[in-house]
C-alpha cells in the first residue's frame, strides 16, 4: 500500500471534500457537469477503447499528458463517476507526481481502493463532486433511485454517499 507520509488520511479527506465543494459552489441543481469541470481545470477527457482490459479498467489519469481516459464501453453514470474520480487524482495528487513521476506512475492503481489512501481520497472527492452535501441535504429523504437519477450517479454510489458524509 502506498502511503505518503506527508499527509494523514482524515485531513486528506477533508481537503478532498473542500475542493469538491469549491468546484460545485456555482451549481444550484444536479446533475453536476463533471466533463465541463474537468475541461475547465485544464484536463482533456478522452473516451477510449481499452480492448481486452475493458472489463477491468474504468479509466485512468495521465498526469503527464493532462488527460483523463474513460472506458467508452461503460454506462454513462459509471463514466461520470470515473471522470470525477480521475479528476480527483489530477487536482489532489498532481504534486506527488511532480515530485516523483516514477513513484506515482507505478502506484498499484488496480488494487482494491479501500487499501490505497490515494484511491480512497479520489473516491471521496468524486462522491462529493457529483453529490454535493448542500444539494443533497434538502432531498436526502427521497427514494435512493430518484436521487441517483437526479444526480446522475449509480444507485450503489448514491447508497454509499447517503451512508457516509
Account of the 3D structure:
The protein has 165 residues and is mainly alpha-helical. It has a single domain (9-163), classed as Arc Repressor Mutant, subunit A (Orthogonal Bundle), CATH 1.10.10. Helices cover 53% and strands 8% of the residues. It is built from eight helices and three strands; from the N terminus they run H-H-E-E-E-H-H-H-H-H-H. It has helices at 9-24, 34-40, 76-99, 101-105, 117-130, 133-136, 144-151, 155-163; strands spanning 44-48, 59-62, 67-71. The chain has a three-stranded mixed beta sheet. Helix 1 runs parallel beside helix 5 (117-130) and helix 7 (144-151) packs across helix 8. It is globular, with a radius of gyration of 15 Å.
Task: Write a short abstract of this structure.
Helix content is 53%, strand content 8%. It is mainly alpha-helical and 165 residues long.
| N-to-C SSE string, H for helix and E for strand | HHEEEHHHHHH
Structural class: mainly alpha
Provide the spatial order of strands within the biggest beta sheet. 1-3-2
- Write down the CATH topology: Arc Repressor Mutant, subunit A
Biggest sheet: strands, sense, closure? 3 strands, mixed
The gyration radius over C-alpha positions equals 15 Å
Identify the quaternary structure here.
single chain
- Second rung of CATH, namely the architecture: Orthogonal Bundle
Structural domain count: 1
Task: Give start-end ranges of low-pLDDT stretches.
Answer: 1-9
CATH class group:
Mainly Alpha
- Which word captures the global form? globular
Percent range for β-strand residues: 5-15%
Helix content: 40-55%
Number of strands: 3
Tally the helices: what do you get?
A: 8
State the separation between the terminal residues, measured CA to CA: 24 Å
Provide mean pLDDT, rounded: 86
Amino acid at each position: 500500500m502506498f502511503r505518503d507520509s506527508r499527509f494523514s488520511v482524515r485531513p486528506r479527506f477533508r481537503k478532498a471534500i473542500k475542493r469538491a465543494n469549491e468546484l460545485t459552489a456555482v451549481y444550484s441543481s444536479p446533475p453536476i457537469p463533471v466533463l465541463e469541470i474537468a475541461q475547465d481545470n485544464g484536463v482533456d477527457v478522452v473516451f477510449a477503447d481499452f480492448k481486452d482490459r475493458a472489463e477491468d479498467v474504468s479509466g485512468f489519469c495521465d498526469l503527464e499528458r493532462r488527460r483523463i481516459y474513460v472506458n467508452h464501453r461503460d454506462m454513462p453514470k459509471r463514466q461520470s463517476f470515473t471522470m470525477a474520480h480521475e479528476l480527483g487524482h489530477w487536482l489532489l495528487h498532481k504534486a506527488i507526481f511532480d515530485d516523483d513521476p516514477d513513484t506515482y506512475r507505478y502506484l498499484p492503481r488496480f488494487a482494491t481502493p479501500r487499501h490505497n489512501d490515494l484511491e480512497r481520497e479520489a473516491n471521496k472527492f468524486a462522491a462529493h463532486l457529483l453529490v454535493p452535501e448542500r444539494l443533497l441535504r434538502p432531498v436526502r429523504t427521497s427514494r435512493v433511485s430518484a436521487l441517483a437519477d437526479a444526480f446522475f450517479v449509480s444507485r450503489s454510489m448514491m447508497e454509499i454517499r447517503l451512508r457516509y458524509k
